């Protein structure tokens, strides 16, 4: 029998956390399945074998294996050591700076690109360059209108209601401690 390939590298702390989730009585089924996928991948189980054992699609196994293990795989770590100028930054899609970047590209699209027709890439670049020059002459910084605490207080209840409340009912004290 050949050596099993470990697709995911798990630290001891991560393994303990995932195993703790599997022992918990009130964990959502989807979270337990994800934990089983990661643990099975670390043990060297194949995509087909994991999918069959857990009753999920092979695409689901690949998705969660990739989400967990991409930046922790030894080949990726080795490549990063060989390329010291490259740094991985894993940022959630809801990160505040990313929202500003999206807003910035939205402004460029709305004010320089949309409803225009460009017959070449050079003309598109000229339009964007004109927009940037005008923007820089009249530059105004993006400013947050709410504090971090206000944002957390407005978003967290919706998150808890949608994803957690049905499986983890919590009282007002726990909700307040999460939002502070």
Summary, kept brief:
This protein has 180 residues and is mainly α.
What does this structure look like?
- Mean pLDDT is 76; it is low at 163-173.
- With 180 residues, the protein is an all-alpha fold.
- The chain starts with 11 loop residues before the first helix and ends with a helix.
- The radius of gyration is 23 Å and the shape is elongated.
- It folds into 3 domains: 12-79, no CATH class; 96-137, no CATH class; 148-179, no CATH class.
- Helix 6 packs across helix 7.
- It has 9 helices and no strands.
- It has helices at residues 12-23, 29-42, 47-54, 58-69, 74-82, 96-113, 121-137, 148-164, 172-179.
Radius of gyration, Cα only, in angstroms?
23 Å
| SSE string, helices as H and strands as E | HHHHHHHHH
Give the % helix: 55-70%
- Work out the helix count: 9
Task: Indicate the proportion of strand residues.
Answer: under 5%
Arithmetic mean pLDDT: 76
